[in-house]
Amino acid sequence: MDLAAQHHPISAELRAAVDDVIQRCAFVSGPAVREFEQAFAEYVGARHCVAVGSGTDALHVALLACGVGPGDEVITQANTFIATVEAIEYTGARTVLVDIAAPSFTIDVDAVAAAISSRTKAIVPVHLFGQPAELDPLRDLCDKHGIMLLEDASQAHGAEYRGRRIGTNALASWSFYPGKTLGAFGEAGAVTCDDGALAERMRVLIDHGGSQKYVHEAVGYNYRMDGIQGAVLNVKLRYLDSWIAGRRRVAAAYDALLNGIDRPVVPRDVLHGWHIYPVFVEDRNRVREKLDAAGVGTNVHYPIPCHLQDGYRHLGYGLGSFPHAERLAQHELSLPIYAELTQGQVDIVASNLQRIV
């Protein structure tokens, strides 16, 4: 990801937006954040957007607002950034992990159905890499059992499922970490939803548990978004669709060039957000070293699945519990993908990867 290439063409707009926050001294929440909340809700197609300090804050406050707490269970997938599990653990609920399903490598709906118990309060599918999970059958499960569906959309800006943008008419958490397709100049996040009462509960929780200054009706948190982040996101949101289109162009170019290279299958009824372009290779570390020597940077998402992290041994899982998640962790390699990547650069990445593999 080359953030400098993204920022350079809009640097004047970004500086002006930040200068406005400085002149107003509106450093915490404030007009820029309120403007972003309205604009992002409209972009997603939701009625409400609650801006917060990070994607982790978003997951946590959404679960709390849904009443998740000690004694409850929340189902999510074993392969995700650790924040998804962290947020569940913060509430005091028990994290129930399930495997992901090949060939899409999104959450396994059948495994979710088998994991539901009388204590299940919510299901948290992750739109991993920008690929939407199978939402309709997950919604059916939630309706059947009277539980909440919280979409972890941290990597899925602009993605679509069956013609509907991710986050539309649902409860979804978002991350605007700088490397995301829509990234702030630091930590930032949001929750989108259609339920006004739910949005109001979140607004109280993120502002020290109060709806007015020095009056605290609940135990709350300091999860507010900074004004500068709201200002930066307002500028960037205007370019988001063009950046996503650029990422889709790069992904299509890779698809055409990477013959015989294993990668997830994208169903026809989804529109991928392409936050990450993953491939699966044997002897990944050696492949990475050779690509680096050829001037091609890569990354890995994520080398150790949640159930094998030392800090989460208490969940009770071990090696072999989730074979697909473990395979992904062992073989996934993330290729360069951003809107400013040229066809020539794509050719260099693809030709070197083909040669090395």
Order of strands in the sheet with most strands: 1-11-10-7-6-2-3
Please tally the helical runs, counting DSSP H or I stretches of 4 or more residues.
13
So what's the CATH class of the largest domain?
Answer: Alpha Beta
Overall domain count: 2
CATH topology of the largest domain: Aspartate Aminotransferase, domain 2
Output the structural class.
alpha/beta
CATH superfamily of the largest domain: Type I PLP-dependent aspartate aminotransferase-like (Major domain)
CATH architecture of the largest domain: 3-Layer(aba) Sandwich
Radius of gyration: 20 Å
Q: Quote the distance from N terminus to C terminus.
A: 23 Å
Give the averaged pLDDT, no decimals: 96
Q: What's the SSE pattern?
A: HHHEHEHEEEHEHEEEEEHHHEEHHEH
Structural shape: globular
The portion of residues assigned to helices is 40-55%
Largest sheet: 7 strands, mixed
Written description of the protein model:
It is a single chain. Helix 2 runs antiparallel to helix 9 and helix 3 packs parallel to helix 9. The strands form four sheets. A seven-stranded mixed β-sheet has the order 1-11-10-7-6-2-3, with helices on both faces. A three-stranded antiparallel β-sheet has the order 9-8-12, with no helix packed on it. It has a two-stranded antiparallel sheet with strand order 4-5. It folds into two domains: 235 residues, Aspartate Aminotransferase, domain 2; 117 residues, Alpha-Beta Complex (Aspartate Aminotransferase, domain 1). Helix content is 40%, strand content 15%. With 357 residues, it is α/β, with parallel strands linked by helices. The chain is globular and about 65 Å long. The protein is built from 13 helices and 14 strands. Strand 4 and strand 5 form a beta hairpin. The model has no long low-confidence stretch (mean pLDDT 96).
